[in-house]
Amino acid sequence: MSRARVVVVGAGPAGMMAAAQAARLGCEVVLVDEALRPGGQIHRQPPPSLAGGAVSAAARPEAERKRRLFDRFARYSGSIDHRPGTSVTAVYGLDRILIADETSSQLIRADALVVATGLHERVVPVPGWTLPGVVTAGALQALLKGGRVRAGDRIAFAGAGPLPLVAAAQMVEAGATVPVVALLRPPWSPLWPGLLRDPAALWAGRGVLSEGWRWLSVLRRAGVPVLTRHVALSVSGDGAAERLVIARHDGHGRPVPGTEQRFAADTVAFNHGFTANSDLARMAGAETRFDPRRGGWLPVRDSDGATSVPGLFVAGDAGGLAGGLAAACDGAVVGAAAAGWALHRDAGRFAAQAATDRAERARHWTFQAALAPSWELPPDIHALVTPATVVCRCEGVTRARIDRAIADGHDGLNGLKRNTRAGMGSCGGRSCLRTLAALAGPRGEGEAVNARPGIRPVALAALANRVSDESVGS
Ligand SMILES: Cc1cc2nc3c(=O)[nH]c(=O)nc-3n(C[C@H](O)[C@H](O)[C@H](O)COP(=O)(O)OP(=O)(O)OC[C@H]3O[C@@H](n4cnc5c(N)ncnc54)[C@H](O)[C@@H]3O)c2cc1C
């Protein structure tokens, strides 16, 4: 008879800890990740040939967290069936999970499925955002961490929350010139009221705060102007990004006339927060709720990570932005619950095994709750999306086209998608669905978009080359 099996999707901090915990508790564990090495977004690893190199003072706390995470994972990694370079592209049920690598595909089964797929970046589109040389702040980090590549010499940043600051400081340390970091509001200003009300949150977040301070010091030493209460108006250039135009905003996101400033740059990096990768959980039938600060459409889950679908669990940032430290603790908690379900149909069976992680997670969650308002966008920010601006870059759909569809009564997100094709391209709506929802108003954000099989691009050859399926059913 086969052992009780836990399948974990995503080998970031949450997935690594969920897999290690389930293996420790006696389950057969399959850990699937499209990346070639574990670590997820925050601890993305380069290929071994590029590993090593000096770690700066500002980067040391992250390196230390990474070391602790990998040490803990290493204790159980020998008994985990890790499948790198492999995507989960559809979940038809726990007995029919479609995975694919470059050359083959397979249906596998799970007694418990943990979705630990993290999140992706959100960008508010402005004229010129599709020019070559415009990227997301996290993409710059990914190239630097995963390939030791600095994608740009003169890089201007704009957006919301702390990521543009951190990424800008990392690019400075990598040798780039940063002419400006333009933020919608100071990420620290919404933080203080929450932290002063709740000293426990302040204490829990002291490490993250001091790390943020170190990155800010890097920017200050390099003389980088950090302009808060500013919006990006446009990117322009002759066939590629050459300058970023910003202006002060009125507190609601509307530019104040006469305050425009231009910054020459060969690369412009945006980040306006994050969207949870909840599509696999939604495809499996999990209920969702909308939370604009913590990642949009989030699977409804209990404190064990259990969703409305029996046996389906969500761990880490896929359940809402809470940072890498919380994600690792959450993974350990959810891994124990998934093991309890897989072995005994009782998610609470091993709760005591994860008590320390549960307590630590609570501390990180308290701090992150205080930080969450820094990702709230001003209410009129989408007024910057001009009629000619492309909103869905995969299908080339402009704001004017979307406005026409809304005027024709297609104000629900799925109706807008069907009517305009926005969100139906190869990125699966990753870059446009939040904008589409915001333009559509309350109905847009209230309605979770349907998640269709093929959420990650798969080669036809891989689909045709099906390795012996483990599934039951048709
Ligand atoms: C672009 C970006 C930049 C960030 N930068 C910082 C930073 O500088 N500092 C900081 O403190 N925090 C940063 N964060 C937040 C931090 O990365 C997260 O809080 C943390 O990594 C969450 O861990 P996780 O395990 O939940 O998800 P992740 O670390 O995101 O891991 C998710 C994993 O799931 C995999 N995956 C997703 N979908 C599939 C699929 N369908 N099939 C197979 N595998 C899949 C991905 O390859 C990834 O490895 C960043 C987040 C993002 C998205």
From TrEMBL:
UniProt keywords, alphabetically: Oxidoreductase, Plasmid
GO molecular function: oxidoreductase activity
Alphabetized PANTHER family for the sequence: ANAEROBIC GLYCEROL-3-PHOSPHATE DEHYDROGENASE SUBUNIT B
Lineage: Bacteria, Pseudomonadati, Pseudomonadota, Alphaproteobacteria, Rhodospirillales
Organism: Azospirillum brasilense
Chain ranges of the FAD/NAD(P)-binding domain: 5-183, 218-318
Residue ranges crossing the lipid bilayer per the database entry: none
Classification via Pfam families: Fer2_BFD, Pyr_redox_2
Protein's recorded name: FAD-dependent oxidoreductase
Domain of life: Bacteria
Keyword Oxidoreductase: yes
Matching Gene3D superfamilies: BFD-like [2Fe-2S]-binding domain, FAD/NAD(P)-binding domain
BFD-like [2Fe-2S]-binding domain mapped to chain residues: 390-439
